[in-house]
Every structure is written in structure tokens, then in C-alpha cells.
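Practice problem 4.
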């Protein structure tokens, strides 16, 4: 389950039974990322994916309720096999930092979501905590070869 830190940050962590290179690829290969990004029932259409510091990632998340959710993100930092930092700029503004720790052919991913506005965090924290855990579940299913 996600930990709530202070008045504006969620942290989720998961150990995957896959090597760090493979887990990191689920975050950096747009074909794979498109398959797991978002909570259960969501699908994605990527419009732009420029994986470099300052690069833009624009996508539309398609909800199970039939609604579309345009998203605009900017990559702030990419450290191969170690860390990805991106800023979510549409709707509630937050920063995501994903770290990848090698553990003897397994990988611990720590997913930190830092909201810029504590009021946005208060409004979103329960939904985001559940959604982040679902994202980690979906990554594991992708790695294990299960249909999404």
C-alpha cells in the first residue's frame, strides 16, 4: 500500500521478479508504457513521447467510463536503469520520480508522486494511492506476459 508523506506526497514501492533492464524498459518503451499506464480499465493513446530531459509526453487516457483525459507531461531527468523524473502539467500538477534498484536479478521500483499544491493532494490522495498500486500491478502483469 502507498505511504503518505507530509501533506503532499505518495510513495509506492514494489519488488518485481525481473531484471532491472527489463523493468526499466516498461517505463521507457512507449509500446510497453502505453499498455500499463493508468489505473485498471484505462487505455492510452500516445501523441508525443520524447524521452529526454525537457522532452514532452502527451497522451490521452481513455477511462472505462468512456471519458477521455488529455495529459501533458515533461521529462525532467532520465538516468538509464536508475531514475525517471517527470512533471505532470495538466490538471493537478505533480512530479513523479521512479527509481529502479537492482536486487540480485530482481528490481525494486519506488514510485514517488509529489503534488505541488497540498489542496490538490488532499483531493486526490485516496484515488492516486489506489491507482499507483494498480499501475504497479499492471507492470507486473506485462512483465509476466499476462494480457492487460
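Answer key:
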Amino acid at each position: 500500500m502507498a505511504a503518505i508523506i507530509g501533506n503532499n506526497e505518495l510513495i509506492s514501492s514494489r519488488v518485481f521478479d525481473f531484471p532491472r533492464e527489463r523493468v526499466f524498459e516498461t517505463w521507457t518503451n512507449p509500446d510497453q508504457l502505453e499498455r500499463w499506464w493508468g489505473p485498471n480499465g484505462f487505455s492510452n493513446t500516445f501523441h508525443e513521447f520524447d524521452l529526454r530531459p525537457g522532452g514532452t509526453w502527451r497522451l490521452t487516457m481513455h477511462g472505462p467510463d468512456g471519458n477521455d483525459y488529455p495529459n501533458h507531461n515533461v521529462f525532467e531527468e532520465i538516468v538509464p536503469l536508475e531514475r525517471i523524473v517527470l512533471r505532470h502539467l495538466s490538471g493537478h500538477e505533480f512530479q513523479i520520480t521512479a527509481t529502479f534498484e537492482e536486487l540480485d536479478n530482481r528490481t525494486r521500483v519506488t514510485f514517488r508522486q509529489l503534488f505541488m499544491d497540498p489542496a490538490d493532494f488532499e483531493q486526490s490522495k485516496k484515488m492516486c494511492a489506489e491507482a499507483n498500486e494498480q499501475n504497479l500491478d499492471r507492470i507486473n502483469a506485462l512483465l509476466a506476459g499476462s494480457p492487460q
